[in-house]
Specification:
With 508 residues, the chain is of the alpha+beta class. The protein is built from 17 helices and 9 strands.
């Protein structure tokens, strides 16, 4: 203590030394306080200890990484760090945390992280895998144009109902025998978005159309493969992997087909009559070219990749959800019976319409519960922090990859009474009326939420009810309901494992 007193006495023994001491003490105070503040503000989310280069690779289930991440969240909490190879990733788990990030901190968590395979596929263009002003302009234009063409409105209802008739005919052709629902279902949902994008639908046997649907489905499966996951971690080392080359081949095939369709539309373009999204884009592109706007975002690459983004998203997610719904009806016949009863009572044999939804709470609950349980985009698409952010007591650096774990929201044990079982009562009150649930977030939230949500909701209701009005879905002969497998296939989105169902016509 005496040594400290001697030091203080010396520092303040003269005006010169007093000034120097004051400066020194201020610097010491600043450094100490900054150190404490820095430690406090730079407390990073916890997580398993990574290995050099490999990170937590050996702990991850590369085919179904969302399962590993859900398990880790139980140990490390709702905000934690995991290393995908050399890439540091922050995972957000649970409804409250995901909502707080995507809605409460929408700007900070609103950028898209573009893994190497996604850059290979879109080159930073389009709507889904882009950032900055180009993304803002393409998303704004897509939303505006889709609304102009009736997304979520009566004109969309007419398109969907027309497609329902074509789909029912496809199912009828099997005459109650077992068949795979994937192709006809994806053709139907693809035709709805195609009618909005291109201005017309395709016949189900159109070679170009069937190739495009097949490419979109296969690419989404490949994006979720272990090979592609490893390539994203070590692109400089694993650029040779087979699935990456298949992705590139599919990209080239899809782009070639899209260019051909755009060329046909451009040759017959009438600025006075817009047939769909492509026409509107071409007209805007033409205006910018005439104005010599060299900085325009309305260029060929943004057009091509916006179209491929809309086509793939509009084909896969809705079609996959309906396939889950049909599989669940076959597995749980007592629930299918209740759906049939409500359909018969409210609609009977007449044409279903969107307005019927408000009078069919049980059917609405079944559709919502299908979306919740299937959780077809379990990890969401990767986000990236646009700036440094302090979140729930943790510091997350600008540019950090973030996975808002949607499956942890849709299966949150604190939000759902029986999160891992198919229970339409999650969306019904004691009187059997439909109730909204805040933790129902299949379309994500915030700046990057699905821009086709309104259209998807309408499709889910009209396709599901039209099919259940006409058919009873059962397992193939010799297969019991218990033997129907609900294990999802591997992919960026969770499709049902390959299976067949029987669509048995009902007498109405």
């Amino acid at each position: 203590m005496s040594l400290l007193q001697d030091l203080v006495s010396f520092l303040f023994s003269s005006p010169t030394t007093t000034l120097g001491a004051a400066v020194l003490l201020l610097l010491l105070y600043f450094l100490v306080s900054s150190s404490f503040n820095s430690d406090e503000s730079r407390k990073e989310p916890p997580g398993p200890k990574p290995l050099p280069v490999l990170g937590n690779l050996l702990q991850l289930d590369l085919k179904r990484p969302y399962r590993t991440l859900c398990a880790l969240s139980k140990k490390y909490g709702s905000v934690f760090t995991v290393h995908f190879g050399p890439n540091k990733v922050v995972v957000l788990a649970g409804y409250k945390t995901v909502k707080e990030a995507l809605v409460g901190h929408a700007e900070e968590f609103g950028d898209r992280h573009i893994f190497p395979v996604f850059y290979d596929s879109n080159q930073g263009h389009g709507i889904v895998f882009s950032n900055g002003e180009s993304w803002k302009e393409m998303r704004r234009f897509a939303l505006s144009t889709l609304k102009d063409f009736g997304m979520g409105k009566r004109i969309s209802e007419e398109r969907i109902l027309e497609e329902c008739h074509h789909l029912i005919r496809q199912f009828d052709q099997h005459k109650g025998e077992p068949f795979d629902t994937s192709c006809p279902m994806h053709h139907a949902t693809s035709n709805v978005i195609s009618s909005i994008v291109y201005g017309s639908r395709f016949e189900y046997d159109d070679p170009r159309f069937t190739e495009m649907v097949q490419i979109a489905s296969e690419s989404i499966r490949l994006f979720g493969s272990a090979q592609v996951g490893l390539f994203n971690m070590f692109p400089w080392l694993l650029c040779w992997v087979k699935n990456r080359h298949l992705v590139l081949r599919n990209r080239d095939r899809l782009v070639r087909n899209v260019k051909g369709l755009i060329k046909n539309l451009k040759e017959t373009l009438n600025p006075q009559i817009c047939r769909g999204f492509v026409d509107c884009f071409l007209i805007r592109k033409q205006k910018d070219e005439e104005a010599c706007d060299l900085d325009t975002y309305y260029n060929e690459k943004n057009l091509i990749f916006s179209v491929t983004n809309l086509f793939a998203a509009g084909t896969d997610t809705t079609g996959t959800t309906i396939r889950w719904g049909l599989l669940l009806m076959a597995k749980y016949p007592h629930i299918q019976e209740k759906v049939h009863e409500e359909l018969d009572r409210v609609v009977g044999s007449r044409q279903i319409c969107v307005d019927d939804r408000k009078h069919m709470p049980y059917v609405d609950a079944v559709i919502h519960e299908t979306q919740r349980l299937a959780s077809i985009v379990p990890m969401n698409l990767p986000h990236k922090t646009s700036q440094d952010v302090n979140f729930q007591g943790f510091f997350i650096k600008k540019g950090t990859i973030v996975f808002p774990l949607l499956t942890s929201v849709l299966h949150d044990e604190s939000e759902w009474e029986s999160p891992n079982t198919f229970n339409p009562s999650h969306f019904l009150d004691e009187e059997g009326k439909f109730v909204k649930r805040d933790a129902f977030m299949p379309f994500s939230a915030g700046r990057r939420m699905c821009l086709g949500e309104g259209l998807a909701k309408m499709e889910l209701f009209l396709f599901f009810t039209s099919l259940l009005q006409r058919f009873c879905f059962t397992p193939p002969p010799g297969v019991t309901e218990d033997e129907l497998d609900l294990t999802p296939a591997v992919g960026l989105t969770l499709n049902p494992s390959p299976h067949e169902l029987c669509a048995v016509s009902r007498d109405l």
